[in-house]
Amino acid sequence: MISQNLSTIAAIASPMGIGAISLIRLSGPDALQVADICTGGIASSTMPRLARRCKIRDTAGTIIDDGLLTVFLGPNSFTGEDTVEFAGHGGILVTREVLARFLECGATHASPGEFSQRAFLNGKLDLTQAEGIMDLISAQTRLAIRAAHSQLEGTLGKRTTAARDELLEVLAHLEAWIDFPDEDIDPQTTIELRARIENILATIDSLLATADQGRVLREGVRTVIFGEPNVGKSSLLNRLLGFDRAIVSDIAGTTRDTIEEIINLHDIPLRLVDTAGVRESDDLIESQGIQRTVRQIESADLLLEVADASQPRPERAVYPSNHATHLLVLNKSDLGEHPSWKNADAIRISCLKDDGFEQLSEKIRTALHFTEADFGEHAVAINARHQASLKLAHTSLHAALNLLTDHATNPELAAIDLREALDALGEIPGKVDTEDLLGVIFSSFCIGK
Predict the structure, then answer these.
(1) 237 and 246 in contact (C-beta within 8 Å)?
(2) Is the separation of the CB atoms in 157 and 128 below 8 Å?
């Protein structure tokens, strides 16, 4: 499908700030003409995909910047349109001046994700590949990069499209049987129809199984550090981060609010949450911090309960029920271990001496069961949007199966459920008209992408 964009858009495609090089991108029907005005005709005389040195000049002919210009003619470009990229000096002001010059010469400012959206509309990407771009940009671990590359290569789109194509054949045969009962059309047995639908359901189930992996890769394992005051929770956070993020003090109640940071531990992204010490307190602010701790525990994926190894083992505090992985961490092991901790299933560490952290990291990796081998062969990790569509398709297909089992049921009812499943699967790669959906997806992109 070719978009009918009449405007030529421009935006800064490199991060804002001072750097060695900046990149400004133009795309649209007048990209070459706009660039020609700024460069004295260099763009239209430049061979495609060949970087050429040029100067960007203002209306008076004064040089704004001196850099490299590259032309990509549509449809052989990222967006499928004529595209021009200018790589110049990475100063904030000079980059903005170049962009302003492009806008002055007829381009309009690109909205967030508009380049990728045009690539989708022009058939250069499906929706899952477009989302893979943002996943790659925001990836924080090697596994996240691997999953993003897999999505960019179209793995998820191909699997859902294959399932949709198979479902389309089932639906076409069923509807032909319904619409032309007098024709010589093999109705197929309900057993064969059910087998084909069950095969599609198996594909959907395998993709839905990656939802938790996808959430972890994109958001990190929500890891809550909790325990009584003065056991070393903030010290543990600082040691895991490698820098002093939280204030460490012997005064109980120093941490009154949650602190969040992300680390990469054995290629697993951990979203560390340091919490206020849990105890009875009359201090209003500290009490609110303790309530926040309770809420963090309720939503955690991994709980690191920290205790002081040198003190008697306290009676178990009542914490909210949670199905998260729970590890006991005994800190201050350098002070000696109190006999009450004997045989306790725990990881012994010393934040002061920096001991035991290798064992702690290994224990976390083992407990989470999230390695490259666990991640699977296909490197597909669906996001929340994919999950919602797959769940709808799953529900509709099960409903169709139940209707096809009942021979007294009108097959038209099963066909309605199959159409609903077909639309749900089509939403994932963007095979249906979903204008509102596009606005939501591409608005989360950075400008210039």
Answers:
(1) yes
(2) yes
Residue 313 DSSP symbol: P
CB 312 within 8 A of CB 239: no
CA atoms within 13 A on the CB side of 252: 13
> Which residues does 274 contact at the CB level (< 8 Å), separation at least 6?
225, 233, 234, 237, 245, 246, 255, 258, 259, 260
Quote the pTM value: 0.74
Per-residue CA distances from 201 to 109, 160, 190 (Å):
44, 11, 16
Q: Per residue of the chain (449 residues), what is the pLDDT tens digit?
A: 344 557 999 999 998 888 899 999 999 999 999 999 999 999 999 999 999 999 999 999 999 999 999 999 999 999 999 999 999 999 999 999 999 999 999 999 999 989 999 999 999 999 899 888 888 888 877 878 888 888 888 889 999 999 998 998 888 878 777 766 655 545 556 778 888 999 999 999 999 988 877 888 888 888 888 888 888 888 888 888 876 664 444 444 444 446 778 888 877 888 888 876 554 444 555 456 556 667 777 778 888 989 999 999 887 665 656 677 889 999 999 899 999 998 889 999 998 888 999 999 889 888 887 655 555 555 577 888 999 999 999 999 999 988 887 766 677 888 899 999 999 999 999 876 555 445 555 666 566 77
CA dist., res. 311 & res. 228, Å (int): 12
Cα–Cα distance, 313 to 13 (Å, whole number): 56
Rounded alpha-carbon distances, angstroms, from residue 48 to 15, 45, 99, 232, 413:
25, 9, 21, 60, 55
436/226 Cα distance (integer angstroms) = 42
Give the sheet arrangement for strand 259-265, strand by strand: 259-265, 268-274, 221-227, 302-308, 325-331, 347-348
Q: Set out the domains of the chain in order of their start, with CATH numbers.
A: 9-126 (3.30.1360.120), 153-210+381-430 (1.20.120.430), 223-374 (3.40.50.300)
